[in-house]
Task: structure prediction
Amino acid sequence: MKKIKIIIGIVILAALVIGGYFYFQNWWEIKQIKIEKGLASEKFPWRDYTQEELAKMYPQIKYADVPTRITPEETYAKFRQALKDNNLEMAIEQLAEESEKYEEN
Result:
């Protein structure tokens, strides 16, 4: 009976060691990927950045908070109406104005 307990203990210990190894290996890969992408600190213990820290480090679109005067739906409506009226110059003009705004960002 004592031998069985020792064998079970050794098997459980071996399972924990092997499971811990695979967990650490997976954790290590994930942390290295996050560090490469700039989502985690390069210094030990490689903590993940918070949303506020990421927002400061990587600002989003230049004028994202500025309200627009013309919505994409309005632009599409003008574009579609120009195509219905067979006014290709007006349709191309709608696309050109929007593409210039997107190129700024």
Notes: Residues 61-105 form one domain. The helical segments are 2-37, 51-57, 72-84, 88-104.
